[in-house]
Design the sequence.
């Protein structure tokens, strides 16, 4: 077995663990195994033969956190003169990132129920097992936080001096503890009152929000530099006592600015006492947490069938055969209920939703409002189409891909309906809602005159869906591949589809200059879509009647 | 027979919320017994085993294993127990070798020792070629064998086997049956649950039937036969659980299957 660096570092703390009655050797063994399993996160159906990248995906993503640290945290070090102000902002961001990555990346660790049957049946004390769990999470937390704050930390040494940096480090450790415990509390709370399925859904949504949040913050970073020069001074309000990031801003004021006001002292005390108290509480509540974990397997709160009226209505409108309707409904269910799929697709959709308004708003800063509303700014909606190829590509995958035997086992007359049903479901469930929301926003901005343009965009979106499908999915059943193969999408094909979208946007622009050109284009598109659909998904005439 | 008491349950109760799972189980198990623990789905078999292993807390009553009350919090008794869980859960991104070595180590064996022993045992099951393959690629039967090995590596005195035969082929079932018989002859105590009545009938030295969290029958197969005047364990099982409608249910079921058939 490989020995891990993190464990070698941990060895220095061995006496500490022994002192509190933890079987260190045993804990180390468990950790070693867990870390090894993490480095093989992908389940290998191919026994290592076809898996391209093996290695801890988390470690590989660390440099990205370093980059976020540079972009998101560092600018605030130059933000005004009140330490409490800049540091509170930095700690808010830090806590947001830590908390959400805790939920998204480490819930698997915290909520692993296999531990119960495999580890708890062995002659090991609960204390040791719990310690193993917490240390396992802490190792990752440490790495993540480390790479996240390393650049701001170095910058802070130069900007504010070594004492500042020291306080920074100590507080980061405290914040890490606080975040781990708070997350566990959140789970405890949810598991206490809801079913395990609900918790998994909530985790799923947090993951989605995190990915969207990071993508959006990317866009906002540029803007954050502009407000750096603002002069804002901090005024204490009583509700600040409830905000942990402000607690952690206070010690800087207290120690470096010699601000010995009562509120600064209270806030600073909270910064130290908060994590300690919560850890004590956590240890007390750990058994309750473990007990509730068994609920994870249950889906007891659901008894009634969900209403399918809308799905049935759409399937009646869009599908020609009963077989296609079946697949439409099936795909809709998969798209709505498979968490992993949602995790891959929803951030893309969020991106599509946010990009066009974002571009338009940034235009406002350079040009007048009237200038924009009368212009061609709505064409930014074409940026949303860029996500279509990825989304269509994702439809091939599922975490329950092994269920795809059903396609082969069932006597399906015309296999084309599997694909067409899925694509229709994809357009209705994913693209249409985004399109409608964007249309409302854009018409509010640019008046109703752009409706024909928007309709053309919708047709182009359908066209792009078809092109992307024929280029990338081919004869692969939907939801029939493991996620490990999502990287198979060739960059060439991605660029090709991007180019096509760009070209179609340009075409739209040119044609809109010709009188009535837009309507002609519309008809042309409808006809092309109709023909392409027929070619891609032929209606096989069944000989046996 | 040596009458050394291994395990005793006194008034064991357990409830989830308002739902009562176990309604006062009293049981004494002696050294060398093979106990077939049977009962309908949801009778509380797995729950009993899990409570005894300390996986579930909050039970009522008293449990003594090897003469020690397990509520006292001394976990070392687990070192003399081997467990095959009903849900065949393993860390399946490990190889069989890694998983078994790890389990051995958890029971306090040295790494080399447990790896060597695991390999020898795997070989006997004809799985030596799969020793370094990941468990995720294993079939249900192979996994089950790995779990059985993992429960025996440390030479335990008491075995809890929850559905140990699921997924195994007829030949493997024969091997396992024989292994259990020989282990019991060596003085090990085996507590196992199964739904396959023929097997339970053949290998158990004592059969305990659990219905709705209560022991409703307890004795050797012959004793049960005398009590209920039925031929096979399956029939006894049906009789005691008061289940006689299997024909009617099957008739209705088949009727529903052929109703509204798709190929007419």
Sequence:
């Amino acid at each position: 077995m490989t020995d891990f660096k993190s464990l070698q570092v941990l060895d220095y703390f061995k006496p500490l663990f022994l002192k509190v009655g933890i079987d260190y050797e045993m804990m180390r063994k468990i950790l070693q195994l867990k870390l090894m399993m993490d480095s093989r996160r992908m389940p290998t159906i191919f026994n290592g033969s076809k898996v391209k990248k093996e290695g801890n995906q988390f470690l590989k993503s660390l440099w990205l956190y370093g980059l976020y640290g540079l972009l998101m945290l560092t600018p605030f070090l130059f933000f005004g003169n009140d330490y409490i102000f800049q540091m509170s902002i930095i700690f808010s961001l830090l806590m947001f990132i830590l908390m959400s990555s805790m939920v998204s990346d480490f819930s698997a660790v915290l909520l692993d129920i296999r531990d119960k049957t495999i580890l708890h049946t062995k002659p090991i004390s609960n204390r040791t097992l719990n310690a193993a769990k917490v240390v396992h999470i802490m190792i990752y937390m440490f790495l993540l936080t480390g790479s996240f704050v390393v650049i701001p930390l170095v910058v802070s040494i130069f900007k504010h001096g070594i004492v500042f940096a020291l306080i920074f480090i100590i507080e980061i450790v405290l914040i890490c503890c606080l975040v781990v415990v708070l997350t566990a509390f959140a789970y405890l709370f949810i598991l206490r009152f809801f079913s395990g399925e609900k918790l998994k859904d909530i985790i799923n949504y947090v993951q989605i929000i995190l990915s969207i949040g990071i993508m959006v913050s990317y866009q906002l970073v540029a803007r954050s530099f502009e407000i750096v020069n603002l002069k804002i001074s901090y005024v204490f309000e009583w509700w600040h006592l409830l905000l942990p990031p402000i607690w952690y801003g206070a010690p800087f004021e207290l120690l470096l600015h010699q601000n010995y006001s009562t509120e600064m002292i209270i806030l600073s005390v909270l910064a130290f006492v908060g994590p300690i108290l919560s850890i004590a509480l956590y240890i007390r509540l750990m058994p309750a947490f473990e007990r509730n974990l068994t609920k994870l397997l249950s889906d007891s709160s659901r008894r009634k069938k969900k209403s399918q009226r809308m799905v049935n209505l759409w399937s009646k409108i869009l599908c020609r055969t009963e077989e296609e309707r079946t697949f439409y409904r099936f795909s809709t269910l998969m798209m709505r209920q498979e968490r992993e799929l949602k995790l891959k697709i929803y951030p893309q959709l969020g991106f599509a939703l946010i990009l066009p308004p974002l571009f338009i708003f940034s235009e406002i800063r350079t040009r007048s409002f009237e200038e924009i509303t009368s212009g061609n700014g709505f064409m930014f909606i074409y940026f949303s189409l860029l996500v279509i190829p990825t989304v269509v590509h994702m439809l091939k995958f599922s975490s329950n891909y092994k269920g795809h035997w059903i396609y082969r086992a069932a006597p399906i007359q015309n296999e084309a309906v599997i694909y067409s049903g899925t694509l229709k479901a994809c357009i209705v469930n994913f693209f249409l809602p985004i399109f409608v929301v964007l249309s409302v926003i854009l018409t509010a901005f640019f008046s109703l005159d752009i409706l024909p343009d928007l309709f053309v965009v919708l047709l182009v979106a359908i066209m792009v869906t078809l092109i992307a499908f024929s280029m990338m999915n081919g004869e692969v059943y939907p939801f029939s591949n493991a996620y490990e193969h999502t990287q198979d999408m060739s960059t060439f094909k991605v660029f090709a589809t991007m180019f096509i979208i760009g070209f179609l946007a340009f075409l739209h622009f040119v044609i809109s200059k010709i009188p009535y050109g837009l309507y002609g284009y519309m008809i042309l598109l409808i006809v092309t879509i109709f023909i392409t659909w027929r070619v891609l998904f032929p209606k096989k005439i069944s000989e046996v009647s | 027979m040596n009458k050394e008491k291994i395990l005793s349950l006194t008034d064991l109760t357990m409830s989830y919320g308002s739902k009562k799972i176990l309604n006062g189980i009293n049981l004494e198990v002696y050294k060398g017994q093979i106990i077939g623990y049977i009962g309908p789905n949801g009778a509380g078999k797995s729950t009993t085993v899990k409570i005894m292993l300390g996986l579930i807390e909050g039970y009522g009553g008293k449990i003594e294993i090897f003469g020690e009350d397990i509520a006292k919090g001394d976990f070392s008794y687990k070192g003399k127990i081997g467990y095959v869980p009903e849900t065949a859960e393993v860390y399946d991104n490990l190889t069989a070798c890694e998983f078994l070595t790890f389990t051995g180590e958890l029971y306090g064996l040295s790494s080399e020792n447990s790896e060597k022993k695991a390999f020898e045992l795997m070989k006997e099951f004809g799985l030596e070629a799969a020793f370094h393959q990941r468990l995720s690629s294993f079939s249900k039967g192979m996994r089950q064998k790995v779990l059985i090995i993992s429960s025996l590596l440390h030479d335990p005195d008491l075995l809890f086997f929850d559905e140990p035969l699921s997924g195994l082929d007829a030949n493997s079932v024969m091997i396992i049956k024989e292994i259990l018989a020989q282990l019991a002859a060596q003085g090990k105590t085996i507590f196992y649950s199964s739904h396959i009545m023929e097997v339970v009938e053949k290998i158990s030295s004592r059969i305990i039937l659990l219905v709705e969290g209560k022991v409703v029958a307890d004795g050797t197969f012959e004793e049960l036969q005398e009590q209920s005047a039925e031929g096979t364990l399956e029939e006894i099982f049906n009789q005691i659980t008061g289940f006689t409608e299997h024909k009617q249910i099957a008739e209705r079921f088949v009727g529903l299957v052929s109703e509204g058939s798709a190929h007419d």
